[in-house]
Structure of C-type lectin domain-containing protein:
Amino acid sequence: MVPLIFLFLTLFNYEVYGRERWTEAQASTWFQSQTYIMGSQYITSDAGNQLEMFQNDTFNPTLIDYELGLAESLGMTTMRIFLHDLAYSQDPTGFKSRLETLLQICSKHGIKPLLTIFDSCWNAFPKAGKQPEPRTGVMLSAWVQSPGVIALLDQTQWPRLQTYVKDVVGTYANDARVLGWDLWNEPDNSYNATQVTALEQLLPQVFDWARSVDPTQPLTSGVFHGVTGAVPMIQINNSDVVSFHNYDPASNFEGMVKTMQQFNRPIICTEYMARTRGSSFITHLPIGKQYNIGMINWGFVNGKTQNNYPWDSWQNPYTTYQPYLWFHEVFRNDGTPYMVEEAQVIKRLNGCPKGLKSTAASLKGLTCYNAYTTPLNSTDAAAACAKTYANLGIIGSAAQNADVMNYVSANFSSCDKFYIGLYQDAYGGYDWPMSGWTYDNSAYVNWKTGYPTNDTTAKCVVLNKDGTWTNQACSTPQCYICSY
Ligand SMILES: *[C@@H]1O[C@H](CO)[C@@H](O)[C@H](O)[C@H]1NC(C)=O
Ligand SMILES: *[C@@H]1O[C@H](CO)[C@@H](O)[C@H](O)[C@H]1NC(C)=O
Ligand SMILES: *[C@@H]1O[C@H](CO)[C@@H](O)[C@H](O)[C@H]1NC(C)=O
Ligand SMILES: *[C@@H]1O[C@H](CO)[C@@H](O)[C@H](O)[C@H]1NC(C)=O
Ligand SMILES: *[C@@H]1O[C@H](CO)[C@@H](O)[C@H](O)[C@H]1NC(C)=O
Ligand SMILES: CC(=O)N[C@H]1CO[C@H](CO)[C@@H](O)[C@@H]1O
């Protein structure tokens, strides 16, 4: 017979070691030390599910590097990346070496990933090895649960899951490249009653396993159908920082943020953005910023997960026509943004990456400027701006002109003038480029005395270091300023 003391230790040893849930103060200190948390759920666009992303044969660091470069170009600071227990269990050493490669690439692009350990969504029977091709017109058709329901309902497999959690979280427990651990995505989504009962036993243990290796990063699991009920209470009770999913319009989203505030912990929205449901970057990111919560949308580069299709594509595959608006995704498969205006809003809310954020009056009250020192003629300069989802610089007020002048004087001493967007039109008047969200009808100009010259061969405008504007030939290579 097992002595009672050993039985006690065996049953409860996961509570004996490791750290407690963070206090509110610890969680707040952590949150305040992070760069604003904004990004997307990420899977390589050539992978249909987590196994395809992480198994040796299909792991694609070249593509990860390119796609995380796109995230960096928007100023994103995190990516929510789903791991898988079977990718680990079949080859722990190889899996961890691929995870290490991923973290190195993330770090190079200024991205701290939120790593997701388990997931209850979509296909219930994951199998290691070659993964099925996606079904035409169906979102996430190859996506797999982790663990599958067989492992969930078979407690003899739980030690394997424990090894996965402890080894992966433990290996990176002190690694500042990792933002945090999202231990279980939508835990009771698509489970029947038997499965939910097993989950209610397993989920608290998953938190205990992760805490047992003393992670310096926060643990969380996002609630997605309100905060009441057994499973949401397990999630919230165990989370160092709380997180939630919401795919509803702005007022409902804001209501959910207020609901989450009752827990007095930092908040991260780990899923939102479904355009046809009224959940979009343009409507929701400013709310996230206002309440100072992390914002992570579902979908990034369109590819084998086909996140451009809505949930109902499982019932009605989009085989004969395409949706009029993409459901999720930030980028098309060719690396261009689905909507330029969205890319601009994301960059603005991320503080105008590598440039000046002018909050001076005019132009919707918020404009980003980047100056470039490689001289280009005005056509090429405008094209270079467009690649960063920007126009040749638009300046809408004296205060903004002063901001821009100070920015270029202090940082770009090698150039004495910069192309801006103003140009002479066919009638001899001057206009701003009209594409994009930043257009307005500002009448502000700051011509140098004697300018503009009445010269039809000098149709382009430069900002001089003293803040004045002069017109000149468009073919002259010049430094330039982009804005968005
Ligand atoms: C993993 O993939 C690489 C490159 O595709 C290959 O060279 C290597 O042999 C594979 N390793 C295993 C253990 O299959
Ligand atoms: C739930 O699904 C499992 C298979 O994963 C099955 O064995 C069980 O009977 C189902 N339970 C209920 C209550 O439907
Ligand atoms: C969650 O925490 C509350 C408050 O401490 C407690 O009353 C409740 O029983 C806990 N629920 C679960 C499921 O852990
Ligand atoms: C500019 O030149 C055009 C053609 O030479 C002339 O018609 C026009 O009056 C001039 N405008 C000014 C403001 O000098
Ligand atoms: C700018 O240079 C490109 C070639 O780099 C040329 O095609 C274009 O016509 C030039 N534009 C102007 C206004 O000179
Ligand atoms: C983008 C950039 O380089 N900004 C710098 C411009 O110069 C000011 C003043 O020296 C710095 O504070 C900015 O960081």
Notes: The two ends are 73 Å apart (CA to CA). The chain has two domains: 16-349, 356-483.
